[in-house]
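Prompt: May I have another protein with tokenized structure?
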Amino acid sequence: MERVSAGPHHTTYKLGDIRVTSLRDGYVDMPVRRLRQPGDKPFGNDLPPLVPLFDGALRLSVNAFAVDDGHEITLIDTGSSNAWHPTMGFLPQALSEARIAIDRIRTVAFTHTHLDHIHGLVLADGGDGFPRLSRLLVPRAELDMFRSEARLRRFHDRAQPLDPGQRLSANIEAIAAPGHEIGHTAFRVASGGETLLVWGDLVHVPSLQFDRPEITWEFDADQEQARATRLRILGLAADNAWCVAGAHLDSPGVGWIFRTETAFRFEPL
């Protein structure tokens, strides 16, 4: 992968014959207790010193990713719009900065249905984020969760089920990655012999969870399954020399995974 443009809210890469853009929706500060050790044990004073804190909190970047095959654009996750913290909701500015015309975004696919991934369908002023949207893909196991979001009512009937192994296009394939949520899904994007794995919320705190992948997150629907999925996919990316892109890796959130003697290491691209 080669970086071709960048700004405060975006970074665009060339992947084979297509382009992938990391879009920064913003960030969210979360309490340290969200991190969980095996046995659902929260951290106290034993948090490793290499984990940076901001006024005592963990700072998580919030990223979405646009895949442009030259004909149309598939957007993976949409950020939170104004549905959560005021430090988020900058996806429209990121798209503008990256010179991505929203009319070219015809497919939106979700890694899962937590609010910081889906509410960008609706702009802060109540308008449609993607007025020419023709396909809205939601992990099948989470369709009911999506349809429970009152703010997104106009999209409830437009949602189509997304299954592992499903191809969204010639370049994009859905991969099962359950644990953080019941239908949590990653996307393998491939072109010209290069592969990028867009993995949603596989890792929340990159300063810790690559070296200690057994550490989970309070909001993981199934912590044991999330841990097993993380180990499996980290190994898959490292062993196949795939680039990875994470929703909560430090913006732009794209890099390589390498095995260490005991775990893994992330190297930003």
About this structure: The domain at 2-268 is CATH 3.60.15.10 (Metallo-beta-lactamase; Chain A). The helical segments are 91-97, 115-118, 143-146, 206-209, 223-240. The chain has a mean pLDDT of 97. The chain has one domain: 2-268.
